[in-house]
Specification:
The radius of gyration is 26 Å and the shape is extended. α1 packs across α2 and α5 crosses α9. The protein is built from 10 helices and 6 strands. A 4-stranded antiparallel sheet has the order 4-3-6-5. The protein has a two-stranded antiparallel sheet with strand order 1-2. The protein is 44% helix and 14% strand. It is α+β, with helices and mostly antiparallel strands and 336 residues long. Among the domains are: 110 residues, no CATH class; 124 residues, Chitinase A, domain 3, CATH 3.10.50. A hairpin with a 2-residue loop joins β1 and β2.
Amino acid sequence: MISSLDGRGVCRESRFGGRITLIALAASLVLLAGCGDKNKDKSASQAAAKVNKEEITVHQIDFVLQLQQQRGLQPEQAEVAGKQILERLIDQELAVQKAEDLKLDRDPRVVQQIEAARREIIARAYIEKTGEAASKPTDAEIKAYYEAKPALFAARRIYSLQEIAIEAKPEQVATLREQLGASKSINDFVEFLKANGYRFAGNQAVRPAEQLPLNLLDTFAKLNDGQAVLLPSATGAQVVLVVGSRSEPVDEARAKPAIEQFLSNDAKRKLVESDIKALRAAAKIEYKGKFGPAAADAASAPPATAAAPAPVSPPPSAASAGGLSATDISKGMGLK
């Protein structure tokens, strides 16, 4: 029988142009920083190009390069990348000049986006500054985290998964769970979906433990090859079948850098959350109109918790894990 379980940055995506690229994001930060400041003395920065009457400086290029280096740009690639950045900044400057000629910088929507970006940048600076006070995790804390997460390290597995995303109403999830548990194979369950008019889409994936949701990691660790889990989703439910798996443990020394980074980021997050909570407590906040007290209370209510998992048992036969390459485990927490 197949058994089922309950489970449960600075700029945003543009309405007009899709996802903003790193170059465009960084360049926009440069432009925001210099907004209304074009007539100031630029002698402190060396000019890299002049576009009509406006200069593009080495400082601007270096700023974008720094962002790229934070995301993995190698030092030996910097010279070539710098030339590419300059060309893109030239294109952007030409676009900005033309937009200003057309008075687009005065368009209410553009002004609103600039202000939103400015606020986001300032708020991010506060978050980063506050997070700097977080203490570095100790060796004892790193060791304790390693030992508390065997499914992520000492007993780490690489999973070959078959995923089925199902469109369903909330009241239909219980029926799906019961049917999954009663089905003799995943094919039987799929036939049930077809016969009852459910819309669904299938997908196959290979995921190491660190690429699974952390709150579901222990659930997956308890699954044997051939067992399935049903997880409620925003659009209905998702069924995940462990087609096969293999053990790929990570020792403490190898895991230490990733754990240290995770604990450090978590400490910063908690520190910022605590500071924001204190700021809220000290501030006078009044909700108005449709965002009045009732709506504010509803928005701050904690989400419903998922039901506890039920025991699972494998079907009569289960597929064995296929061969997995090193690239299959190169993501997640950065374990190589």
